[in-house]
Amino acid sequence: MTDRYCIDVEGIMKRIPHRYPFLLLDGILHCTPGESISAVKNVSFNEPYFLGHFPGHPVMPGVLIVETMAQAGGVLIWESVPPDKRDFTLYLATVEKTRFRQPVRPGDRLVVTVTLTSRRRNFWRFDAVAEVDGTPVASSEFLQTPGPVG
To answer: In this predicted model, what pLDDT tens digit does every residue of 37-66 receive, in sequence order?
Structure first.
């Protein structure tokens, strides 16, 4: 399945500060500023964490699935604020109600959908679902807040 990205990896790197090996997004499928975003992580056997998680049975760490969701939320925040307000670094403030339903393995195409549920002052709350082949593999609620650059 190949969908066109509305934002490719170079565009993602213009929006969030993450870089290899910690940039986990490969592309954005859809973004509605102030509402939701869908992003893709193509899970490759060449990912460095598969060397130890787990030898002979590689599984993407759950914390990295949550980080993938948070990075997508970061792109959504970037797209949702006016250009003159984009001088910030995002911090993950809380992670709640996270559930892992099945392992994510090399060769999987992880699609995360992140929905903004509320914004109070400088705190953005999201619901997120991660799917492989249309089957939910993880879900989470999280809160992000921007801080100063550097």
So the answer is: 999 999 999 999 999 999 999 999 999 999
φ, ψ for residue 14, nearest 5 deg? -80, -15
d(CA 3, CA 47): 22
Looking only at Cα atoms, what is the longest distance across the chain? 49
Catalytic residue among 18, 30, 53, 57: 53
**93 SS3 class:** strand
Interval 109-125: pLDDT, tens: 999 999 999 999 889 99
Domains in the chain: ranges and CATH:
7-147 (3.10.129.10)
* Alpha carbon distance 61, 43 (integer Å): 11
Q: pTM for this one?
A: 0.95
Is-catalytic flag, 53?
Answer: yes
